[in-house]
Specification:
Shape: globular
Radius of gyration: 17 Å
CATH superfamily: Phosphoglycerate mutase-like
Strand content: 15-25%
Structural class: alpha/beta
CATH topology: Rossmann fold
Largest sheet: 7 strands, mixed
Distance between the termini: 21 Å
CATH class: Alpha Beta
CATH architecture: 3-Layer(aba) Sandwich
Number of strands: 7
Number of domains: 1
């Protein structure tokens, strides 16, 4: 299986540096343009299925990137961004002043991030890994021997999944490359003695050289 992991386009809250989490924001004009340009770049790929976070910004991205209606899109709550509870809707700069330690943990020490009423990055990563495993199981049952699956989701969720594939500890979550808006990553999943083995072919539009 080939997984194509796509982050949503720029939103109004991205521009404002406002915490989104699972709250709703919408694409800016630039975000729409990014999604449309992504659609052009991947138009040569025949996807068997598109799975999309149920958030508005990802649904808008999928609409503009896969708007020809030729690929079925399913919307999953499991692909939504990290839930940040009391932080959502607040500016990052205000949180840096009000909760400096938690803000520091979020961006510099994600393995230590813990806010009451919010998911941890470990919670997010497990949710992402479980969602991909469910998708993989679903497509093992169909006739396609090497399905190409697109997943339209969010920066932290995609980063957490790729961190898992790389076998890196959570403190490495934010290491480069940056997961920019409409970043396109590719993961190949193959079978080895009955187990699934995942490898990253492309990370945020950058080709990955396997050693």
């Amino acid at each position: 299986m080939e997984l194509h992991l796509i982050r949503h386009g720029e939103t109004d809250w991205n521009k404002e540096r406002r915490v989104q989490g699972q709250s709703e924001s919408q694409l800016t004009a630039l975000g729409i343009q990014q999604a449309q340009e992504l659609g052009q770049r991947i138009r040569h790929i025949k996807f068997d299925k598109v799975y999309c976070s149920s958030s508005l910004r990802t649904r808008q991205t999928a609409e503009h990137a896969f708007g020809n209606g030729q690929t079925e899109i399913s919307y999953l709550d499991e692909l939504r961004e990290i839930f940040l509870g009391p932080w959502e809707g607040h500016l990052y700069e205000d949180l840096a002043q009000r909760e400096p330690e938690s803000h520091q943990h979020f961006w510099q020490q994600p393995h230590l991030f813990q806010v009451a009423g919010a998911e941890s990055f470990f919670d997010l990563q497990q949710r992402a890994v479980d969602a991909v495993a469910d998708i993989e199981t679903t497509h093992k049952k169909n006739a396609s021997t090497s399905p190409k699956i697109a997943i339209v989701s969010h920066g932290a969720l995609i980063k957490s999944y790729l961190c898992h594939v790389e076998g890196h500890s959570m403190d490495q979550l934010w290491k480069p490359p940056r997961m920019h808006n409409c970043a396109h990553s590719i993961v190949a999943i193959s079978a080895n003695d009955g187990d699934s083995v995942a490898s990253i072919l492309q990370y945020a539009d950058q080709a990955v050289n396997e050693e």
